Queue: 2 jobs
Job 1
Amino acid sequence: MRKTYTSPLRALLVLFALIILSIPQTSLGEVALKDADIRHFIAAIKPLDKLGKKYALDQDKDMMSQTMDGEFNPMSQSLKRIRKHEAYGEFKHIIQKAGFSSDEEWAMVGDRVMKAFIALKMKKEMQHQPGQGGVGELEESLKQIENNQHISSEMKERLLKQIKQSIIMIKSVSNSSPADQNALRPHMDNLNTQFKDVE
């Protein structure tokens, strides 16, 4: 009877294949947001909103103005700013209580949640208003504003900045992971409610 021999390398390859096959609805290198992480992010929304109101963070331009640097990562940008703020200790307590092991984890999960959330909202909006609000339309608006001689330089600069940030956001969220979007779908109603309550 022929003896079957499995080398350590072959066993490792089989294990790797089983791990990959166990990841649902993803491609190689793409792992969906965990349901628990999404719930942790949602749990932190209202406490962080209260913290923001306590320290008037929404009025702190240095804290809240988003410089996207070519990427839509609002939570990572907020984390950079709040680390320098007196509210940082309370901020860490809130996210740890919500279930995050670190502020970096909160920022990473938050960026992915927001990208997937906005991508799903955009898809829904485009179903109702096809052809509206695309990048091409915004880029055309940029040209019109740049050539408009009837608005002040200050107003022109502000409008151009807002539109450029919108273009960055749209391009960024359009690349949002389909796996993240699928993971977020069951939580969309809850997220909409949470964001509406903190407006």
Job 2
Amino acid sequence: MRKKFIFSLLLAVFLVIFFAVGAKMFLNYASLYGDSRINTIRLSSQKEAILANGQLEERVKKAIADYYNLIFGLGTMVLRIKSDTQEIDRIRARNFELLGEPDTLTFGDAVDMANLVAKRVDIRPAFLLAIFQEELKLEKFDMCYLTDLTTGEGFRISTGEKLFKVMKPDRDIPHFLDIMKELGKNPTETAVTCPMSFGWGGAMGPSDFIPSTWIEYKNKIEKITGKQANPWNIQDAFWAAGLYLSDSGANTQTRAGEWNAAMVYFSGSINSPYTWYADGTMAFADEFQGDIEILERRK
């Protein structure tokens, strides 16, 4: 009886060592090939073959089965962590295009910047990022140069088509000229947005602010950053959009408040007919919120 127990114990030790090597192989295979399903099947087959040995006592079989479950659980956890890490790295590294800045930021950079602004002005980072993407969707291929500083006429850069409402003369052109002078830019060689089928164009930079609105927020931005505000500076654009959205109701961090803020950002009113803009912004916000929640797993 004693010899049988010693034999069973030695066999169990051998099988545990063998099984540990198998588990390590499982993890190595999964690490190299990412095919955890195939390696799970292989490892399970090894386990079943071992437990089918009629010479093993039930308690030895139970110990082997428990050990298998432990190793398999650890392997599964490692694979899950690796998978999460790869997904986080992929999300952070993807490009986050801004209006006029196609390759400057990664999504991770944009989230970091949005978090900084959002913390100060009490809005959701995902909503701030969504505004930039909705503006990009609308204006990416529709930029103009102003040619007549009296009438506000200009032309579409992509086609050369002459347009009559590139910038509103009384409301925006005087402020635009002041901004251009301060930044040392040429007002007729600086791209602004073209007019849509309604209203005027003339908005500047990634945040797509018309000059008269930019002037309202210029001093606030400079007070925060401690430097001259520039509509084409990405950090300043984030601050401008964040401050404006917060003032427009996004600081409630409710869906209704954000929807209203998006309406005001685009048209100046929550009662305008351009609800598609707010709807599109909220769709982007939902997408980015999911991505941000994945990124936060690493914290």
